[in-house]
Design brief:
alpha/beta; 14% strand; two-stranded parallel sheet; 42% helix; 5 helices; five-stranded mixed sheet
Length: 215
């Protein structure tokens, strides 16, 4: 009887230990599965978050090149984010000088790649020029020529400054100086076609600017 009791006790102990081991194994397995699922979810979230951050960084890193001249502390070519405004490129160029006149500029204007912006000096725009805001902004087109952005008026070739003449398509600094020197030597142009008398302005170049000039 005693021997039987010992065997029974041993069997019962084995059964209890087995049950404990099985239960422990099942619990551990569930924890492992849950942990794996949570880990996969977390990894997926982190991967998606990294992708979104990379896309955001790519978008934020899109740069444009702008040429700013005139009354800023650091004239020249500057790199700036897309969809920046004139106020932003002025800040990028070190800010305005004391002689700057921004009364004719729309500081909220969104600039584009290849654009040239000139910040005029006080009194610079008062040389009998009837053109208003944005006459000092130009953009390079695909042919490398300057495309006048101002749509309000035309450039007066008898009174325009070098900077204003340079806003005309195909008119660079050297040609603008030739126009000014021609006026000094020969007087004012009698009609817009007379600008073809300036060395370097042929029929082709004239056809690009004739709708943008006046006397």
């Amino acid at each position: 009887m005693k021997s039987l009791n010992k065997k029974t006790i041993i069997h019962i102990s084995i059964i209890i230990i087995s049950i404990i081991l099985i239960y422990y194994f099942l619990i551990r397995k569930e924890d492992y599965i849950e942990s794996s699922i949570n880990s996969n979810i977390l990894n997926t979230y982190e991967e998606n978050n990294n992708i979104n951050n990379n896309l955001l960084n790519i978008e934020n890193n899109n740069k444009i090149i702008v040429y700013i001249t005139g009354q800023v502390k650091n004239e020249g070519i500057h790199e700036i984010k897309e969809k920046s405004r004139i106020a932003d490129i002025i800040e990028k160029a070190g800010g305005l000088t004391e002689e700057a006149d921004i009364s004719s500029l729309n500081l909220a204007y969104i600039i584009e790649d290849g654009m040239k912006i000139h910040i005029p000096k006080k009194g610079e725009k008062n040389n009998n020029i009837t053109d208003e805001t944005n006459t000092y902004i130009s953009k390079e087109n695909n042919n490398g020529n300057s495309e006048n952005i101002n749509k309000k008026g035309k450039i007066n070739i008898n009174t325009a400054t070098q900077t204003e003449l340079e806003t005309l398509p195909g008119i660079g600094s050297s040609t603008a100086l030739k126009i000014i020197n021609y006026r000094k030597e020969n007087g004012k142009f009698n009609n817009i076609e007379d600008i073809k008398k300036v060395n370097g302005i042929g029929e082709s170049k004239y056809s690009k600017i004739k709708e943008l000039i006046k006397i």
